[in-house]
Automatic annotation (TrEMBL):
One Pfam assignment: LacI
Domain of life according to the entry: Bacteria
Organism: Arthrobacter terricola
Protein name from the UniProt record: LacI family transcriptional regulator
UniProt-listed PROSITE patterns: HTH_LACI_2
Native organism taxonomy: Bacteria, Bacillati, Actinomycetota, Actinomycetes, Micrococcales
Ranges where the HTH lacI-type domain occurs: 15-70
GO molecular function: DNA-binding transcription factor activity; transcription cis-regulatory region binding
Length: 337
């Protein structure tokens, strides 16, 4: 029997900034400027030498050490209600780009529209000492005690009311709904229904408020109201319900593009023509609306402007405020335009 000896694998030495500077023939300060994109500018030729040295040596900056030195993790967190809704994905991407322009990375979490999951993510972000958190909450007034205790600022997104002590960014949901209904009235519709998503807190959605205001202003009766999950399945079931109605409305305002896309499938399956038999206007302005059939007329949200405002509110030093943006009617075929 032969005894086998085990030789430990050689431990790869840690590559330092000094090693990179030595190989590139520059100072460590210049390496720092390249790695951190400033604060001083470096000539393209020198930057290329430094980046080649970084690649050759496999250098990785020590994020933990940098965070300790700066007193900042340079990391922001974002909690979405779902990551399967195209609009939330577009908004998250816009926030990520706006944050990157300010030198921050973005960590995204999905609450799955669950209050318990939202709480866990907030606790996790607080323990990681992030520089700030963007929250699209399942509640109209979320509990932010964990962030407050950790002195981590937060910005509430998709939020239309003032929250003392916090910045918030939202879109005029009620005003957008009124624009949608008024547009359908301009097309000659007098019986206009509503398909609206349900929320965890049970509060009246501002889009329903706007729908009612527009009908009241025009002296028209309220059409049927169908409530369901903010999902394609929720919209599909809403479409099935509409098809079962003997006195069906001639037009409907749908509170999200996602629900509208699901409803379109149910209507197509029945052979209903859109917009001839039923006109539709939805809300969000997501890619889902543009590539539906027929393409959906929708109230588009100014995502890039909202994202920049949210990042500025989180990392800036201005007073706390509630920023409300106006949506824009995007005319397509589903309403008859």
């Amino acid at each position: 029997m032969v005894a086998m000896s085990h030789t430990p694998a050689a431990v790869r030495p840690t590559v330092t900034r000094n090693d990179v500077a030595r190989l590139a023939g520059v100072s460590t300060a210049v390496v720092s400027y390249v790695v951190n994109n400033g604060p001083k500018k470096v000539s393209p030729a020198t930057e290329e030498k430094v980046r080649n040295a970084i690649a050759a040596l496999g250098y990785r900056p020590n994020a933990a050490a940098r965070a300790l030195k700066l007193g900042s993790s340079e990391m922001l967190g974002m909690i979405l209600p779902v990551t399967t809704n195209p609009f939330w994905v577009v908004l998250a991407h816009a926030v990520e780009e706006a944050a990157a322009e300010r030198g921050y990375a973005l960590l995204i979490a999905n609450s799955e529209a669950s209050l318990a999951m939202e709480r866990r993510h907030l606790e996790n972000f607080a323990s990681r000492r992030l520089d700030g958190v963007f929250l699209i909450s399942v509640l109209f007034e979320p509990d932010l005690r964990d962030l407050e205790a950790a002195e981590i600022p937060a910005v509430l997104l998709n939020h239309i009311t003032n929250s003392p002590g916090f910045d918030s960014v939202g879109v005029d949901l009620s005003g957008g709904a009124q624009i949608a209904v008024e547009h359908l009235i301009e097309h000659g519709h007098r019986k206009i229904g509503l398909v609206v998503g349900t929320n965890t807190g049970g509060q009246l959605d501002a889009r329903e408020v706007g729908w009612r205001k527009a009908l009241e202003k025009a002296g028209l009766p309220t059409g049927p109201v169908i409530r369901g999950p903010f999902s394609r399945e929720g919209g599909y079931q809403a479409g099935k319900w509409l098809l079962s109605e003997a006195d069906r409305p001639t037009a409907v305002f749908v509170s999200s593009d996602l629900m509208a896309s699901g409803m379109l499938l149910a209507l197509h399956e029945s052979g209903l023509r859109i917009p001839e038999d039923l006109a539709i206007v939805s809300f969000d302005g997501s890619p889902e609306a543009e590539y539906s059939w027929p393409p959906l007329t929708t109230l588009g949200q100014p995502v890039e402007d909202m994202a920049r405002a949210a990042v500025e509110a989180l990392v800036g030093s201005g007073p706390k405020e509630n920023r409300i943006f106006s949506p824009t009617l995007i005319r397509r075929a589903s309403c008859g335009c």
